[in-house]
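cron nightly-structures :: item 1 of 1
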Amino acid sequence: MLLSMTGFGKSETICKDKRIHVEVKSLNSKNMDISTRLAPIFMSKDLDIRTLVSEHLLRGKADVILWLEDNDAQTQGERISNEVIDGYIKQIREISRNHEIEEPSDWWEVLSSLPIIQPAVQEELSEEMWAAAKQALVESLEALKAFRQQEGKAVEKKFEEKLQNITFYLNEVKQYENARVTKIREQLESMLKQLPAGSYDSNRLEQEMIYYIEKLDINEEKQRLTNHINYFRETMAQDDAKGKKLGFIAQEMGREINTLGSKSNQAEMQNLVVKMKDELEQIKEQVLNVL
């Protein structure tokens, strides 16, 4: 089964009066690359979060977002502090008495110009809160892995389509193969007829022609390419299929296709080689996104 490195998962849970939100998304990358954006209360658990993510995702670029929301609307955000207001009024009245200054006629105008907001108190992370957040993170990672599986099935279907196309073009080569050798032999013989009789050793020439034609034989390349295609399919079917391994196999397929191109010496065969290269290039592009 193939797994894509592209995925997304999210989860949320409630702990006491807080709602915990977690989102994780991943993209392709050669190594495990994790970035986190955490609510301040969870900053001390950054390393634990990174470890958990790397255990689940193995490879790829992952972005983790974890934030809190007050579940009770009355407790959200910052609040006006009655204690601060009472303190301001007491101090202003003392100043008025001590300096014989008239008290303000519009207290609200004076107080609104002073800092009367009480910042929300930063809570310490409790074991209960961390356990809830950790569970939400795991659920997000599981959802992301399910997304990866779904994407992997689509990639596997694409691979199979491309492999079938390469096999089709490879089989099409056969109809031009024998004609190619015959044509080359005829060309050589035609050129030899233009040479003066007895100017060359016919036995040695025959040996050289056989050697030259054997050099153009592509049976080994075709067999190796077929073996690589089969091995690619076998690797896709494995539970521990890895994108890097598929990438290596694709490289070997490319070598055989390139050799076919260098030995073709025929326009029809070269056209088929170009088509095989195009299909293989699309495989290589998709392999980069396979886990």
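cron nightly-structures :: done
Strands lie at 7-15, 18-27, 32-38, 60-70, 79-80, 117-118.
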